[in-house]
Structures are given as C-alpha cells and as structure tokens.
Protein 1
Amino acid sequence: MAKKPGPGVSFRSLRRRRKDTNGIWGHLANEDSFNIGTGPRWGLPSWVLPTLSIAAVATLIILCVQVFDLQNHKFNPNDVVAKARSATFEVSCGGSSGTAVGINVPVPDGYKTAVFSAAHIFDDCKPGDKIDVVSSGRTYKGVLFKKDPAGVVNENDLETIADVALIYLRVKLPALDAAPAGHVGDWVVELGNPLGEINYATFGIITKVTDSQYYTDAPTNHGNSGGPLLDSQSRVLGLVSWSQLIPENVVDSRNKSDVMDQVNGISGIKRLSNACAIIYSASPKCPFRD
C-alpha cells in the first residue's frame, strides 16, 4: 500500500515539502493569502495625471495648427497670380514702356495710390512728368515723383544701380503689401508685360540674395522691367531690373544642351529697401522693412 503523501504542493510527479517560515516566500509556498496593501504605498501626486493630460491635448492642438498652417501656405502660383494681377500695371513714358506694381505705402495729400517701377523705363521723362498707367484696359495719368538714377540709365550699370522709380496717382488702384525678406530657395512668381503679353507670369526660385537685390531663375523678357517679384502670399519682394542670357556663340554647337556658361536665366530683382535711401531719404521712416 502506497504511503499517503503528507501536506504539500504537488504537480504530477513533483513534490515540495511545506516549510515553516514567516517570510513572504513562506506565505506563498504555504498557499497562504497575502495582502499586498499592508506594505508601504508609493503613488504620484494627484496633480500629475491631469497636468500630463492637459499637456498632451495642448501638444495635439499645436501639431494640428501647424499642419493646417503648412497646408494653408502651400505655394500655389495660380493663387499668387490671381491676387496680384489687378495690382500689376503697364506703364509708358516717351518711347519706352514696361511694368509697374501698386504697393501699400503712405502717399502725400491729394494722391491715393503709389506705383513702383524701374527707373530705366523712364529715360525720356523727368520727375513731374505725366506717366500713362494702364489698369484693366483703362489708362490713368500718374506723376513721376522720383527716380534713381535721375538721368539716362546705362544698361551695363543695371546690376549696380538702384533702378527704382515712384509714381503717384490721384485715383485709387489695387495695391499689394511689401514682403518680408526672402531667402535662397524660396519659390517666387514674376509678373509683367513682356513681348506684348499682359500680366504674363513666370515662376522659379530665389537663387542668390545680396543687400540690394535678389537673383532668380524665373524667366524674364523685355517688358518685364519694373514688374514685381512675388512671394507665396502675393507680397512684393522687389522690382525686375535686368536679366542675362547665354548668347548662341557660347553654346557647344555639337550639343545645344551643353551650356558652357553659368549665367543663363539669371535675373536681377531690386529689393524694395533700395527706395529707402533714394526715394524716402527725407522721410523719418521708410515703409519697407526689407
């Protein structure tokens, strides 16, 4: 007859003798109940969880706002052009014509709109002369208030001069805001009236920035002079002044795609800050921060 096993815990053929101990492991081994609530308690202050919850919600809201802002300010040339077209004009004086843009700045008493353009368009005119400003097919008379240089502009000097002109009108025409400083790589739109086109738009990026001008690869043609370079929110970065293309004789005749010069497609855009020292030199504050 098999001997009856004594008290213990069995698992198939395994057996462990019950030991007499007062320790915690003894309680577990003896299958005694064990109250973990009797030991020292460790807990977080009551304010921690609500604070963490509020911080998590706030972080989620900030992330949502940032995502929405990125989507809202995504570069869209169509939107930029649609907004800027009404404030971009044809201007002419004597035997030359070009482009100009209305910009929101203070104007003298009796005038309602300030229009900026390139000085080299107005070689045949002097300050005080009447300027034709065409807006939406209608011609208005403006007054050439100031330009720099004051005389005839040498095209070879365009890269180093201010090349800015200001026209005032007694009628209210659409105008755009001035842009904050642009940076290399920013997408931009160039708007103008080249080669008989009206409000013709091209786009590219800012390729270089100096104290006085932006450089861009946006295509530029005769008639773009004085037109605006616009940022992603249809604000005016500067005024188109000059462009430089590669002539045919510096392109490899065996392979037209093998360009042998690095100046192809470079356009110079005069920053609005040029007008601060030239046009607004007598004013206590220049309206342009850039």
Note: The chain has four helices and 14 strands.
Protein 2
Amino acid sequence: MTGMENMNFHHVPVLLEACLDVLDVKPGGIYLDGTAGGGGHSLEIAKRLQGGRLICLDKDPQAVAAVSERLAVYPCARVIEADFAEIPRVLGEMGIDAVDGILLDLGVSSHQLDTPERGFSYRDDAPLDMRMSLSGPGAAELLNGASADELTDIFRRYGEERFAARIARGIVEARKAKPLSTTRELVDIIRAAIPAAARREGGHPAKRVFQAVRVCVNRELENLGICLEKAFDLLKPGGRFAIITFQSLEDRMVKRGFAKYTAGCTCPPDFPVCVCGKKPRGRLILKKPAVASPGELESNPRSKSARLRAIERIR
C-alpha cells in the first residue's frame, strides 16, 4: 500500500467540471489550490498545465502527505502545509507576484469526516478533536472551557442552532460531573436538550452544533474573511477566483466579498456626475452559484449543499 492508501485518503472532487470551466486553466499559467484536501481538483489542474505552475495548500498535514504523493509525477506542482489565509505569505516567499487562478473548496474533507479518530463526525464515537491542522486547542478544550453564554453564541453564530442556549446549559451541567471527552457524549447532550418534535426535523440533531464547533476550533470564517480581503489582489488581470461553499454562512461571506469587487460608483443617485471615482475591479463569472447536477448528486451525495461562485479580475 502507498502512504495515501494507508491513510484511506480518497477524494471525490465536488463540482469538478464547473471549477475547471470557471478557472479556464491555461497551460502556462500559475494556479493555487488553497484547500488541496485529497487532491482531486489539484490533479485535474496539474494535468492541464504545460510549463505552468500549481501551488497546493492545506493546513492538514495528512492531506499534505497524501497530495504530495498523488502529485509526485507532476513537476509543475508544489504542496505546502499552510492555511489559505496565508496565501500572500506563501506566494511572497516563492517570489510570485500574481497568479492566474485561485480555488478554495471550503469545509471539512471526506477524509476528515471518514476518519473517526479526527472527531469531525457525529456518527462515530471518537475523541472530541476537530482540528484540521492537528495542532492547537481542539473541540474538547473549547467545550470544557467556554461559559454557557459563550457556547450559546458559538452555536448560534456558526451553526444557526435555535436551541443553542438549551444545549449550552446541558454541556455546562454535564461537565460538572466530568469533562466532555468524546463525540458520543456531545451527541447525547444535544439529543437530550432538543425537544422530541424538533429532533425529527432537518436531519441529524447534532449537525448544526458539530458544524459550529468545527468552524470555531479552526477559525474557518475568520480565515475566509482574511482570504477574501487579500487574495483578490494577487490575481493577474483576467485571473479568476473560484470558491465552493457548503453552508449558508460561508456562501453569504463569499457573495458579499465578491460584490465588493464588482461594485462601481458609490455616489448618491442624484449626483449629476461621479465624484468618487470608484470603478469595478472584478466581474462575476457566474450570475448565480453553480450547483451539483442530478448525476453528481447521485454519485456523490456530499455535493448536495455545494455552491460555486467565481469572479474575474478585470483587465
């Protein structure tokens, strides 16, 4: 077995054809995959390069090892352990001023979900971890250290959980006996806190809280905000920025971030002429986000909530 197989690192790239279409990969271009994951998108970009370069980032060291192995036969590709919020630093250290395309595939990877000991899944009993980078404080530290008010805010803000306060109180009460240490303990607390009628609605009752904890532990929205603010300026004129989201909070951030770059004059409508001088810096490649086709949904159910947005830097 290869190292990648030993880690059971498989990856079905979501919205692959749509991503390749909006990136419009040029053989001699420079492209950056900020969330390499299992390498599915990176591999297809690498196949299309002849004289170009591909930089693959991931904060998960297991992903870095797997993608490095998968792309070893492509000399155009370089894999680096880093968060996509660090794109300016990475490119600066490589002496690259601008790129032709950037891709982000947000959220948790298939490998992370399917490796029980990583603690991302509410379907397995595992340590409360959820760290994508395998470093720093994990889910257990967060859940055992935060106050009821802080947990309520986290569950509402990052999971849009309507029973956030009840779940937070349940966690605080349970940890009086002993600190939380497993995903099963967290799931049981969530089930007990949510009314029976609500538990029968909208999928697994722990889904929103697990999302909230993961997003908070990994600073996902903060890092996305940094990337949206900094990465656009690293595109060449005509360069494209494509982002796949899987939940509404991310999608709203991307939509607003892209809108800022496509906005032009901000003068009041009653001004006879523009005095602000602001002009659009980008144009949307997709007027509406691309979603998975019925065929992709059938072959890859995890693509159900995927949304792809893309913007081009105006020449």
Note: Residues 1-7 have pLDDT under 50 and may be disordered.
